[in-house]
Design brief:
It is built from twelve helices and 16 strands. It is an alpha/beta fold. The chain has two domains: 114 residues, 2-Layer Sandwich (Enolase-like, domain 1); 220 residues, Enolase-like C-terminal domain (TIM Barrel). It has an eight-stranded parallel β-sheet with strand order 4-5-6-7-8-9-10-11. It has a four-stranded antiparallel β-sheet with strand order 3-2-1-16. A two-stranded antiparallel ribbon has the order 12-15.
């Protein structure tokens, strides 16, 4: 097998701001795996929040000894940090699906009719800009509104005057427990579906305190990196957010999903700001979850790949082999000159 890693820079349609950061261009690592005449795609969208970067992913994958068997998933993925494992995991799954000439959802025995509707994320901005983004979204049935930098009630009240669909809110660790309970109690009249990660990760008992007092369900993201994090959350939250780059790819996501189901959690499948490669990989698992936040392709200005589509927000899976993703633009327009080429 040979592997090539390209840094991709993806300009965004709008500045994307959450409680702790802001960006106009997203960076991801594009992976091309070649084996037996097949070119397979992988991607990782690492973040400093979890102490990984595009550079660390490329350097680590460059040190691997891949061998010549893409089906040897346990050996190839064992011991890699999550973002590195995610990129290779997705490429290997795409390769296997292409080798067998079947889409991944079919290899997993899933029904593509059971995909959920995805939310569309509205990043933090001055209120008039946030309302303009909501109007731009139009009739999309689900919004996820980023909060955590003040004016929370004013923001939700204003959005509710122009939007009647489902609203979720996400504070990205931006509140205290006391703020959370006060804000969610005040927001309840606006029919908020759930609140995602209101407080800094690492305090399950504080989440339990919030859940016991909140009229709105609590879902965690930064507190639920992988399946090992879930036992500590039992009784503390209502649901978890699964992201491939946090848990190490599709195998890690399946472990989280099955563990969460056994524990009675509801499950959301999320994404970073990324191309269709990584979003489509997650989408193949979406018939297994309750909610989706797979809106990466909505946020980028020029995605060089095509994969999933949407029907009134409902995810439509591709029926091509593997991921079913195809390249539609030259990634050289997005990638710096630096490129790691690996042949093992």
């Amino acid at each position: 097998m040979t592997l090539a890693v390209e840094p991709l820079e993806l300009p965004l349609k709008h500045t994307f701001t959450i409680s702790r950061s802001s960006e106009d261009v997203a960076s991801t690592a594009l992976i091309r795996l070649r084996w037996n005449g097949i070119e397979a795609f992988g991607e990782s969208a690492p973040t400093s929040r979890y102490h990984e970067s595009v550079e660390s992913v490329a350097a680590a994958l460059g040190a691997l000894r891949l061998g010549d068997d893409p089906y040897a998933l346990e050996r190839l993925l064992d011991g890699l940090p999550p973002a590195q494992r995610c990129g290779l995991d997705v490429a290997l799954h795409d390769c296997i699906g292409k080798d067998l000439d079947r889409p991944l959802w079919r290899l997993l025995g899933l029904d593509p009719a059971n995909t959920p509707r995805t939310s569309f994320t509205i990043g933090i901005a001055p209120l008039d800009e946030m309302l303009a983004k909501v109007r731009e979204v139009g009739s999309h049935p689900v919004l996820k509104v980023k909060l955590g930098k003040g004016a929370e009630l004013e923001t939700i009240e204003a959005i509710r005057t122009i939007y009647t669909g489902t609203i979720r809110v996400d504070a990205n660790e931006g509140w205290t427990p006391e703020q959370t309970v006060a804000l969610l109690t005040a927001m309840a009249k606006h029919e908020i579906e759930f609140c995602e990660q209101p407080i800094p990760a690492g305090s399950p008992e504080k989440l339990r305190w919030i859940r016991e007092r909140s009229p709105i369900p609590i879902v965690v993201d930064e507190d639920s990196k992988d399946a090992n994090d879930l036992p500590a959350l039992l009784g503390c939250v209502d649901g978890i957010n699964v992201k491939l780059v946090k848990c190490g790819g599709m195998r890690g996501a399946l472990a989280m999903i099955h563990t969460a189901r056994a524990m009675g959690f509801k499950i959301m499948l999320g994404c970073m700001v990324e191309t269709q490669i990584l979003t489509t990989a997650a989408a193949h698992l979406s018939p297994l979850v309750d909610w989706a936040d797979l809106d990466g392709p909505f946020l980028t200005a020029d995605d060089p790949f095509a994969g999933i589509t949407y029907d009134d927000g409902k995810i439509v899976l591709p029926d091509g082999p593997g991921l079913g993703v195809r390249q539609i633009a030259d990634t050289a327009a997005f990638a710096p000159d630096a490129r790691a080429e690996i042949a093992r």
